[in-house]
């Protein structure tokens, strides 16, 4: 498979790297210490076209392919891992809308997401239903020509900032076919909606939250696709977004590894650069080798998506491997600095805290392996 970038893609990658280095990287630590993303961030990303990557041009988007979306995720996360959640959420919610929304709905929802005016959230996980999302319990009870939502969503990335949420609720019987998707306005104060921030080990700036729905009203014009089609739409989105998440993790790992190699050239011990010692150099070489292999796996999945083929196997392989590998690489990079990395002045500690979160979020390793096992073995022979 050819993973060569077009001249246009390479030019855009360089443009995004320059932007991320100048505008995002300086805020990475400060936003973590503040525990919040700066209010101007979504608009800055939107002005660069990075929150409208997957949206069609007629709605203010870039109409970018999946590979280009992966390139952006990798470059943004190299500079500011947490800023990349805005890129990721916007791309995933956009794809879900494109799969099921009407033209009129798209015209209302996509332009403000593409511009960065509206921060979107994916509201799927519940306290008792994370991996088992097909059996979620948040209820959509009929109310006139619409519904009222009752229940809780939790572990919602950007939940404290989101202006709009793709909320998955049970409109029918048990199982996946009873789940529908709604676009819910979260921007206006609503006495029937409450948010509660979560106190996290890492990615403290992204406003991960629980959302409580106590009769929030949604109309038929907020239903995405038909009743009972919500679970299918989000699963299709995950099939490629998991490869984007893989590149998001590998982007921060690349930054950590670059810093480690630079330090190995500069730091001297026993009268020579520490890179001269095999015990230090060889683990970094192993990290670089595996990082390159994982990148190829992620881009294979995205290239399959662009070709109209099923990306599920490489995307889910990437989802369980890339976050774990990235955590291992950042850890090894931290150890390369020795005592110097045990200070918060060094970014390696924050990188490690942040990247571990995506070993859990958007599908655990076990769920990703289950998907792959069912493809490779067949459902009758797999767990």
From TrEMBL:
Enzyme kind, highest EC tier: oxidoreductase
Positions of the Acyl-CoA oxidase/dehydrogenase middle domain: 121-216
EC number: 1.3.8.1
Cofactor(s) recorded in Swiss-Prot or TrEMBL: FAD
Any Pfam family: Acyl-CoA_dh_N
Alphabetical keyword list: FAD, Flavoprotein, Oxidoreductase
GO molecular function: flavin adenine dinucleotide binding; short-chain fatty acyl-CoA dehydrogenase activity
Ranges for domain Acyl-CoA dehydrogenase/oxidase N-terminal: 6-117
Domain Acyl-CoA dehydrogenase/oxidase C-terminal: 228-377
Similarity comment: family membership: Belongs to the acyl-CoA dehydrogenase family.
Protein name: Butyryl-CoA dehydrogenase
């Amino acid at each position: 498979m050819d993973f060569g970038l077009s001249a246009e893609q390479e030019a855009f990658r360089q443009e995004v790297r320059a932007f991320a280095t100048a505008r995002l990287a300086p805020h990475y630590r400060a936003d973590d210490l503040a525990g919040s993303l700066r209010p101007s961030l979504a608009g800055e990303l939107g002005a660069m076209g990075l929150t409208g990557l997957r949206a069609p041009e007629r709605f203010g988007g870039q109409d970018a392919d999946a590979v280009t979306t992966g390139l952006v995720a990798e470059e943004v996360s190299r500079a500011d891992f947490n800023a990349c959640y805005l890129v990721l959420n916007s791309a995933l919610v956009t794809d879900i809308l494109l799969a099921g929304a009407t033209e009129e709905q798209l015209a209302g929802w996509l332009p403000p997401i593409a511009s960065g005016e509206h921060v979107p959230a994916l509201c799927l996980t519940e306290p008792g239903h994370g991996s088992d999302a097909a059996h979620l319990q948040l209820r959509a009870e009929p109310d006139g020509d619409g519904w009222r939502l009752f229940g809780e969503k939790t572990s919602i990335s950007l939940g404290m900032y989101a202006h709009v949420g793709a909320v998955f609720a049970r409109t029918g019987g048990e199982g996946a076919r009873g789940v529908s998707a709604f676009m819910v306005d979260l921007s206006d104060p609503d006495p029937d909606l409450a948010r509660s921030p979560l106190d996290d080990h890492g990615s403290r700036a992204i406003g991960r939250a629980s959302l409580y729905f106590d009769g929030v009203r949604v109309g038929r014009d907020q239903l995405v696709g038909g009743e009972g089609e919500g679970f299918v739409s989000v699963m299709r989105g995950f099939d490629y977004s998991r490869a984007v998440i893989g590149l998001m993790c590998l982007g921060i790992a690349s930054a950590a590894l670059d810093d480690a190699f630079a330090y190995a050239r500069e730091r001297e011990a026993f009268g020579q650069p520490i890179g001269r010692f095999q015990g230090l150099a060889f683990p970094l070489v192993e990290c670089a080798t595996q990082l390159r292999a994982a990148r190829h796996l992620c881009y294979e999945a995205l290239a399959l998506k662009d070709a109209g083929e099923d990306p599920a196997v490489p995307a889910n392989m990437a989802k369980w491997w890339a976050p774990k590998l990235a955590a291992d690489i950042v850890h090894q990079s931290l150890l390369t600095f020795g005592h110097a990395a045990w200070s918060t002045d060094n970014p390696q500690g924050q990188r490690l805290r942040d990247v571990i979160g995506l070993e859990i979020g958007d599908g655990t390793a076990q769920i990703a392996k289950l998907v792959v096992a069912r493809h490779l073995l067949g459902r009758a022979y797999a767990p």
